[in-house]
Write a structure and sequence with these properties.
- The protein is mainly β and 658 residues long.
- It has two helices and 50 strands.
- The strands form nine sheets. It has a seven-stranded antiparallel β-sheet, with no helix packed on it. It has a seven-stranded antiparallel β-sheet with strand order 14-23-22-21-20-19-16, with no helix packed on it. It has a seven-stranded antiparallel β-sheet with strand order 26-35-34-33-32-31-28, with no helix packed on it.
- A hairpin with an 8-residue loop joins strand 32 and strand 33.
- The longest helix is centred in the N-terminal third of the chain and has 6 residues.
């Protein structure tokens, strides 16, 4: 009996989960490269022959198939559910065929390399219509991290649940994908480490790590620290004693971040010897860290090829190396910040002081950038509050996150800068904080145990009035997206079954194609939603969530919109509008919470109007061709993406009348 390979990166059967945010993936980064997208593209899969079977499967069979998108998938795309972007698919294993017409796509996640070819994947398809409980159900699972498993077993209540398969075919490993995409422009990044300062023989202090990595195309700019293992075309690193290559290494970790020019500015690389030696035998390893130093050497192998091992033979550098490439740099971009005069101040601060500053990046920020850590991309910065000045040379960057609107203007930010070198604990340490939601705070307080510890400031200057940024921006072509939901099926007066949710979202430019579910709150110019009884607008609403995903043509295909009436007191009643369609989860719900409380928490609506679970509407498509192919981050990213928690059904159920 076979079972499908487990997913390790995110919840299997993603259609049964609700994406609540980008979470770790936003920190780690989901970035699509700013390159033109090709037209309709077909990706063809060829699996390995089955090695373990029960009749009617045979070892002469394997999984073959393909999927087609209206526009080619972006380059350097992290593992992302692309089911909303697929025009059609068909896969066969010699016994069953799974197509877009007869299957549930419980999970259809793929990652791409630098040329846009599929390089990692997890696909889980089940039979549709869903068989009755206990009747045979055909399923198909393709996993790049393990192998293919196909077959049939007794159906359970959920169409996307994993089931035991007494009839099965299983391959010994993953298959491969092909497409007609051009090969790209292979780009090499060269690494030069610092000379070793601490060594044991046979290493010497005259040696250092040098090497290079090749991608099918240049890395995109403003890439936060991201796992690029799936995009590696080739690499080679040597330390004077050992050489680690793609053929001779286990790539346990290969993460990079880039600045505004696409140059590698942060990294963490951990390579171990392959094939993996027997436990106790010598194993060579190599670690390169952009935040610390290089460590190479050998020690006794353990069972896990990627486990840290004690190195009896080693060499270490005093600090990190550097990366270079032959890419021409873009024009640097400078963004200026102007805060409001402090409303509260203790000497030497005064109410005539304010926070001002600027940042310089190697290139312009992309449009539709969700809140993203750009600390690795800062070429320079300077902020002054009238008393102190924080610069790149005298500061620790604890946090530097920004989000942009549809033209690339900074609309949200969190900046936390601390005096460096860090004073001894208890000694005065200068501090500058600025956020889009709270305002500005600057001053001096006793240093904590770490550079970025929370400290109490006195003296200080602060304001709760939000400042603003200016800088280069893209040309804007404002676009509105209109939503029409199905009519309510479950109501309490004054709601009727003739009511439904309709809405509008307006952005400074068309949404980019192939955008995974991402927070677009920072990019909204305006919105308006109505459920037939109430209307929620930007002027009178709290946005608890506003996330959308687009297909290959830039049309909205998944969304999570949660709006609440802004009220004076937490005890006041407030009205609410939700419209959610994420994977297989969908529902529209409007009503009033008579008890007040946390507007973004779980509460009961009375009265209310609701569609049946799975009842969702549709969006008026964007102009033909969709949005501009611009860099876009999202919850993976996205990456790789990220932080898949809390089912939407449970959340919505908490707001419906029992």
């Amino acid at each position: 009996m076979a079972s499908a390979p487990a997913r390790t990166d995110e919840t299997r059967a993603a259609g049964r989960t609700r994406v609540l945010g980008l979470g770790p993936l936003a920190a780690l980064g989901i970035l699509f490269s700013a390159v033109p997208l090709h037209g309709a593209q077909t990706y063809t899969y060829t699996g390995q022959n089955f090695s373990s079977v029960t009749a009617p499967y045979t070892t002469a069979e394997k999984v073959t198939g393909s999927f087609t998108t209206a526009v080619a998938l972006p380059r350097f795309m992290p593992l992302t559910d692309v089911s909303g972007s697929i025009a059609s698919y068909s896969f066969s294993d010699g016994v069953q065929s799974r197509t877009s017409a007869n299957s549930f796509a419980c999970d259809f996640s793929v990652a791409t390399d630098g040329a846009g070819n599929v390089s990692a994947w997890f696909v889980y398809l089940t039979q549709a219509p869903h068989p009755a409980l206990g009747d045979p159900e055909e399923t198909m699972t393709l996993a790049s991290a393990s192998h293919d498993v196909v077959g049939s077993g007794a159906a359970v209540a959920s169409a996307c649940a994993s089931i035991p398969q007494p009839v099965f075919g299983a391959s010994p490993g993953p298959g491969s994908w092909s497409s007609s995409l051009p090969p790209g422009s292979p780009t090499t990044y060269v690494f030069t480490g610092q000379p070793f300062t601490s060594v044991t023989a046979p290493y010497a202090t005259s040696e250092k790590v040098t090497g290079s990595v090749v991608f099918a195309n240049p890395l995109p700019p403003f890439l936060p620290l991201t796992d690029v293992v799936a995009a590696l075309s080739d690499f080679s690193f040597t330390d004077g004693v050992q050489t680690r290559t793609k053929v001779s290494s286990n790539v346990c970790q290969f993460e990079v971040a880039t600045d505004g020019a696409g140059k590698i500015s942060k990294w963490f690389v951990y390579l171990t010897q392959a094939p993996h030696p027997a436990s106790g035998d010598p194993e060579q390893t190599m670690t390169l860290s952009g935040s610390s130093h290089d460590v190479v050497g050998s020690g006794a192998a353990v069972a896990d090829p990627c486990a840290a091992i004690a190195q009896s033979i080693f060499a270490e550098s005093a600090g990190p190396g550097t990366w270079s490439s032959s890419l021409p740099p873009p024009a640097p971009a400078t963004y200026h910040y102007v805060g409001h005069p402090f409303s509260s101040a203790t000497p030497p601060y005064s109410t005539s002081d304010e926070l001002t500053g600027s940042i310089t990046l190697a290139g312009r920020l992309p449009a539709f950038l969700p809140m993203t850590d750009i600390s690795a991309a800062l070429s320079d910065f300077s902020f002054t509050d009238g008393v102190q000045t924080r610069t790149r040379a005298n500061s620790t960057v604890c946090t530097f996150e920004v989000a942009t609107d549809g033209v690339g203007a900074i609309t949200r930010w969190v900046v936390e800068l601390r005096e460096a070198p860090t004073p001894a604990p208890g000694n005065p340490q200068q501090n500058v904080d600025s956020t889009w939601s709270i305002g500005d705070l600057a001053g001096t307080g006793p240093a904590g145990a770490t550079a970025c510890a929370v400290i109490s400031l006195s003296p200080a200057g602060s304001t709760s009035v939000i400042g603003s940024w200016t800088g280069p921006a893209l040309p804007g072509t404002p676009v509105s997206y209109d939503y029409a939901g199905p009519f309510f099926t479950d109501v309490i007066a004054p709601y009727t079954t003739q009511d439904r949710i309709t809405g509008m979202l307006r952005f400074g430019n068309p949404l980019p194609p192939n955008m995974p579910l991402a927070d677009v709150t920072a990019a909204i110019l305006d919105f308006s939603y109505s459920d037939g009884i109430q209307t929620r607008t930007a002027a009178d609403s709290v946005i608890c969530k506003l996330e959308v995903a687009t297909d290959a043509a830039g049309r909205i295909v998944q969304w999570d919109v949660e709006l609440r009436q802004r009220v004076a007191s937490s005890s006041d009643p407030f009205s609410s509008i939700d419209s959610i369609h994420v994977g297989a989860v969908g529902r529209d719900l409007g009503g009033t919470n008579p008890a007040g409380g946390n507007p973004c928490g779980v509460f009961t609506l009375d009265p209310f109007g609701s569609t049946a679970p799975g009842g969702v509407g549709s969006w008026t498509p964007a102009p033909a061709g969709g949005g501009t192919a611009i860099p876009t981050l999202s919850g993976s990213a996205l990456l790789v993406l990220a932080a898949l928690t809390a089912a939407a059904g449970a959340s919505l159920a908490g707001r419906a009348r029992p």
